[in-house]
């Protein structure tokens, strides 16, 4: 049986590859549990400094597998399945690892939540991104209602969840849903280059910076300032910060 999600670690990079190309990498029960298990492992491994999420086939992720939903036969089953996938989303979002996403082709429904669990998304020139929940009489899940508005603003989020609109790759960047749009054939290469740059630089500092930005929405200004002060102090004690700050001070004369 083909694994629904592939997982490798190479020179500090954990690669999580959605691997149901025949179903546009839509999530069924097996994919949901593999996602939860793999993300849980990735964020605690000592040999991982950054994460890359990508996908095989013509699409990044079409969200939930509608055929699998019908087979579940109940809203309770769908709620439980969403909860499993949410564990993986939380593992990535709450981690101190920077996460890059290579979202080629179509990203729809819960696939937006998978994209938003990353911190830096690269899309292709012919990519299409949208909600499409209401087309099937469903409502957003997998963090879409929680994270989409933070990424693009409330009014634009409403435009996506209340219409069948699909954004182009360029529009996704303009709206703030993705960081870069590149040629379709270069999406994976570019996203990996971003992740490798984190690893080759000050990986732990990128992770701490990600954590500060992610936490800011839930903390008061006073709490955030205190967290920033503690974080920069802790960062300065790391060997990489001592090396990089000394080099910068020396070059500044």
UniProtKB/TrEMBL annotation:
InterPro entries: ClpP/crotonase-like_dom_sf (IPR029045), Enoyl-CoA_hydra/iso (IPR001753). It comes from the Bacteria. This is Enoyl-CoA hydratase.
């Amino acid at each position: 049986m083909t694994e629904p999600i592939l997982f490798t670690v190479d020179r500090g990079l954990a690669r999580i590859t959605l691997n149901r190309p025949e179903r546009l990498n839509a999530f069924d029960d097996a994919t949901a549990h593999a996602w939860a298990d793999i993300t849980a492992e990735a964020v605690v491994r000592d040999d991982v400094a950054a994460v890359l999420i990508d996908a095989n086939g013509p699409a990044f992720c079409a969200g939930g597998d509608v055929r699998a939903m019908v087979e579940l036969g109940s809203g309770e089953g769908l709620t439980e399945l969403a909860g499993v996938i949410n564990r993986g989303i939380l593992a990535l979002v709450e981690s101190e690892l920077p996460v890059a996403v290579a979202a080629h082709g179509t990203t729809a429904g819960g696939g937006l939540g998978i994209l938003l669990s990353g911190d830096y998304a690269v899309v292709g020139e012919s990519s299409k991104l949208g909600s499409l929940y209401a087309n099937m009489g469903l409502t957003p899940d997998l963090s879409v209602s929680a994270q989409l508005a933070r990424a693009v603003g409330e009014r634009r989020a409403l435009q996506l969840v209340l219409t069948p609109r699909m954004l182009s790759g360029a529009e996704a960047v303009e709206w703030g849903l993705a960081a870069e749009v590149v040629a379709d054939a270069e999406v994976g290469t570019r996203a990996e280059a971003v992740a490798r740059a984190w690893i080759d630089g000050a990986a732990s500092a990128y992770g701490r910076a990600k954590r500060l930005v992610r936490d800011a929405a839930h903390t008061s200004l006073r709490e955030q300032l205190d967290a920033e002060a503690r974080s920069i102090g802790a960062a300065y004690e790391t060997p990489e910060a001592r090396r990089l700050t000394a080099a910068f001070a020396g070059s500044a004369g």
